[in-house]
Design a protein that fits this description.
By secondary structure, this protein is of the alpha+beta class. The strands form 3 sheets. Strands 1, 2, 3, 4, 5, 6 and 7 form a 7-stranded mixed beta sheet that branches. Strands 11, 12, 13, 14, 15 and 16 form a 6-stranded mixed beta sheet that branches. Strands 8-9-10 form a 3-stranded antiparallel beta sheet, with no helix packed on it. It starts with about 25 loop residues before the first helix and ends with a helix.
Amino acid sequence: MLKPYDTIPFSGSPLDRAGNQRRDAAWLDAQRNASTSRFLLLRELKPLIALEGGAHLAWFPQRFAAPLAECPNLLLGLEDGVAHFAVDVDDIPGIDALADDNNKFIDVRSIAPQLSLAEAAILAQARSMTDWHKRHRFCAQCGAASQAEDAGYSRRCTNDACRAQHFPRTDPVVIMLGVYGDQILLGRQPQFLPGVYSALAGFMEPGETIEEAVRRELAEEAGLATSDVRYIASQPWPFPSSLMIGCVATATSDTVTVDRHELEDARWFHRDEVAAMLRASTDTSAPLRLPPPLSLAHQIARRYLSES
């Protein structure tokens, strides 16, 4: 029998985000200059990964990170009183010299499965926040330049006539299994690898509850009418910054009408088939499989089967 994983990938960070302390400029400055503090470098949103002895985040001590003090940086949080920061090094000439056989800048999606769950969670926070700062250098209200505040957890317009404050954005996405008896609805998009079927998903729209978004997406993409909706689990998804909200919805019939603008295919699979597709999720030669464990589609399917 399939058992659920204890922790959803990209969740479970061990860091205390220090929401109260980080508003204190003197405290924050002391953390940035503390000899114990640790700094994670990101170039083009790729973290520097140490490969020797197994992949792990390459934390730089403060004395090596000091020359990068003018780079955009943000406080990730504290662990056992030690401050951990992320530093965007895109504008530093010659930064690639830090990469060698044992240290490489690697895409988050590629390296996350090789990291511990705790480090993957830290990396999700670092990537999402760094990406948000890159995308929000100007005030959305007046167009003037903005600057980071609150240890990187907000930006302030520099126009004295405006001074609008902006906060990091998280986009909610519903991802759901339609179920009808022992059948589970899965679909695939044209860009999926051959044989991969996944849970249907879509962005929530303004003025919607989670349940309403689930019902709407299933109706739009698969013509499926549903009754009750049950929440299963959620996942931070740092590409660029979404919150995946995993649900199961009970279908009122097994009639499926696929929206070919959204999906290449959508069909019912028996629960035993889905269990086999979960086991084959990392086997690229399998004729049918679900996405690998990094995805919430994998996680909610596994949890649903283990519960039911």
